[in-house]
């Protein structure tokens, strides 16, 4: 706390001034003013200590120190770096999702094509079967008459 350091310096200066005036009795002194100033610095110390106590009681976050500016800066740089990496990963994920969607569309298209081809092949095979059955029936109907006519 900078106020506390300033107060200590003031107390030291006033205390040494008061002590030097007590030792040098031959100089005219204004010891009443010096004593009042010393009492005022002590009162100021009590006020600062109470304010510090109240702040610590109610303040939830730690007060920043001037020494912490470098770590804060490195943390900020790390956050920026991590955000950049995260955006790169998000972009890579989007690209992968697009490739996956494209390959799924291609797969679906190929499946549809194969199903259509199999359906056509089935239709052709059914038609061929029907034609063979008709020819077989025609051949069996015409064969007995030939056999009957020969006998």
TrEMBL record:
Q: Which UniProt keywords apply?
A: Coiled coil
Cellular component terms per the entry's GO annotation? centrosome; Golgi apparatus
The UniProt entry's GO biological process terms, in alphabetical order, are: centrosome cycle; positive regulation of microtubule nucleation; regulation of Golgi organization
Instruction: Name residues in a coiled coil.
Output: 79-135
* InterPro entries referenced in this protein's UniProt entry, alphabetically: MT-associated_AKAP9-binding
- Where does the source fall among the domains of life? Eukaryota
Q: Which GO terms describe its molecular function?
A: molecular adaptor activity
Name of this chain's protein: Myomegalin isoform X1
Recite the lineage of the species.
Answer: Eukaryota, Metazoa, Chordata, Craniata, Vertebrata
């Amino acid at each position: 706390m900078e106020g506390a350091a300033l107060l200590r310096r003031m107390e030291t200066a006033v205390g040494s001034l008061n002590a030097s005036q007590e030792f040098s009795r031959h100089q005219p002194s204004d010891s009443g003013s010096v004593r009042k100033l010393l009492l005022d610095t002590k009162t100021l110390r009590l006020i600062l200590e109470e304010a510090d106590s109240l702040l610590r009681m109610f303040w939830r976050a730690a007060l920043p120190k001037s020494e912490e500016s470098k770590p804060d800066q490195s943390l900020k740089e790390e956050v920026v770096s991590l955000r950049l990496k995260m955006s790169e990963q998000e972009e890579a994920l989007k690209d992968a999702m697009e490739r996956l969607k494209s390959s799924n569309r291609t797969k679906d298209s190929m499946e549809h094509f194969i199903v259509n081809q199999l359906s056509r092949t089935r239709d052709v095979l059914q038609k061929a079967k029907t034609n063979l059955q008709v020819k077989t029936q025609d051949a069996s109907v015409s064969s007995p008459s030939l056999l009957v006519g020969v006998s």
